[in-house]
Amino acid sequence: MTKANPAALSHAPNANRPVTSAPPSRLGRGLSMLLGDNSGNKHHIPDIALEKIIPGPFQPRKIMAEGELQKLSDSIKENGVLQPVLARPHPEKAGFFQLIAGERRFRASQKAGLKTIPAHIRQMGEKEALAAALVENLQRSNLNPIEEAEGLERMRETCKMSQAQIAQAVGKSRSRIANNLRLLSLPEAVKQALRDGTISQGHGVALLGCTRPDAALKQVLSLHLNVRQTEELAAKGNFPSETKKLENTSIRQADLKQRAAKLANSLEKGLGLDRFGLKASVQLKQEGSKGGTLKLSWKNQEQLDALLKQLGK
To answer: 171 in helix, strand or coil?
Structure first.
């Protein structure tokens, strides 16, 4: 077992402070189960030198907005680190610690110029560390739906946990876990929309019922559909595929050309344009669903005068 280097522990006045935690939530109980923490609500939490902490590979959160990090850094400057990070003795570097959970607080503390940070130190294996990192982030609601799903998938694959075990660990229902994992089967465009918050997790689950979720996503965004509307359209199968859209566009363009030719012939006969050596040239252009353009062409001023005279009758 790797022992912590006493030199890495701060002897500042607030080191080994007693901390009283709030009553545990479902997620909190899941984290306690993973940590094997049966010591009650009061703990002595040491301050660890930041230079002795190395971020681990367990962080499920991929996106850390610089603005949010700066706000947290400013808060830490004003109030200190209110919630300890979670770390374990580094498995390969004696005297160092590997960060399991709390990377935002760790980075913000560095940004704030702190030298130490309060940390829970636990002896944990790879599987326990991965599960604890995910549970801690879920407890703080720091993850977007895809980050959460990827973290759950890592728990299932790396920790060999069933959906029931994962549900118990993270404090969520089995159906919620199943739906989260299903999001990973969506096309990349839909997953990216979930990552950046363009659509909600409810939208993502609804799009799972579509044969072409990527095409359906475009309609959801263009029509600003809410989750219920997305579910209704998915149930009715009202999301046209890209192929169908292209077919409809080709048919519409061919129809316009045919109508333009008929209109040109009618103008030539109806207005007697052939007497002036003027052959009608008509273009019809559809502009969305609201209207279009009718275009007449002439070759010289004489033809224009004749055309205007005939149209003015």
So the answer is: coil
User: So which residues are the catalytic ones?
Assistant: 103
User: Maximum distance among all alpha carbons in the chain?
Assistant: 106
Tell which of 161, 185, 209 closes a domain. Answer: 185
Q: Per the structure block, which two tokens stand in for 158?
A: 């790396």
* In the chain, % of residues over pLDDT 90: 32
pLDDT score for 38? 43
- E strands in the chain: 17-20, 42-45, 47-49, 53-55, 85-89, 97-101, 116-121, 282-287, 291-296
Interatomic CA distance for residues 34 and 131, integer angstroms = 7
> HSE-up of 103 (CA within 13 Å, CB side)?
20
Cβ-based burial of 297 (10 A; exposed 0-12, middle 13-18, buried ≥19): middle
* Residue 290 lies inside a defined structural domain of this protein: yes
Range of the domain at 105: 6-185
